Amino acid sequence: MNLSKFSLSEGHDHIQLDHLLKILGLVSSGGEAHQVIEEQMVHVNGEIELRKRKKLRPGDVVQFDSNSVSIEQ
Q1: What is the DSSP string of 11-37?
Q2: CB–CB of 14/56 below 8 Å?
Q3: The dihedral of CA 29, 32, 34, 40: what is its sign?
Q4: What is the DSSP letter of 8?
Q5: C-alpha–C-alpha distance, residues 14 and 40, integer Å
Q6: Tell me: the pLDDT tens digits for 3-36?
Q7: Total-model pTM
Q8: Angle in degrees, CA 40, 42, 46, rounded to 5
Q9: For labeling, which of 10, 30, 48, 69 is most exposed (least CB within 10 Å)?
Q10: What is the pLDDT of residues 29-55, one digit of tens each?
């Protein structure tokens, strides 16, 4: 499994799940991000997440495919 950390930009307290997947290059488009979320392929903090615009905050961990990303401030 590929473990990585994502630091939020200064002044931001969250990032949306669909944006994170796209920014990290785990998907090629926002549409693909929505599709993998709808297909129950994404987990947040160990639970399947179906909300495309779920606000991720420091301490959250996102798992998709063989990637695990920890959100940091």
Answers
A1: T-S-EEHHHHHHHTTSSSSHHHHHHHH
A2: yes
A3: negative
A4: P
A5: 22
A6: 999 999 999 999 999 999 999 999 999 999 999 9
A7: 0.94
A8: 105
A9: 10
A10: 999 999 999 999 999 999 999 999 999
- Residue 1 is predicted with a pLDDT of 82
Sign of the four-CA dihedral 57, 8, 10, 19: negative
| Domain at 6, CATH number | 3.10.290.10
Cβ pair 42, 49 in contact under 8 A: yes
Our count of domains for the chain comes to 1
The Cα–Cα gap between 25 and 48 comes to 20
- Vertex 45: Cα angle to 19 and 31 (nearest 5): 25
**Running DSSP on this structure, what letter comes out for residue 38?**
H
Expressed as residue numbers, the domain containing 56 is 2-72
Q: Residue 61 in contact with residue 3, Cβ under 8 Å?
A: no
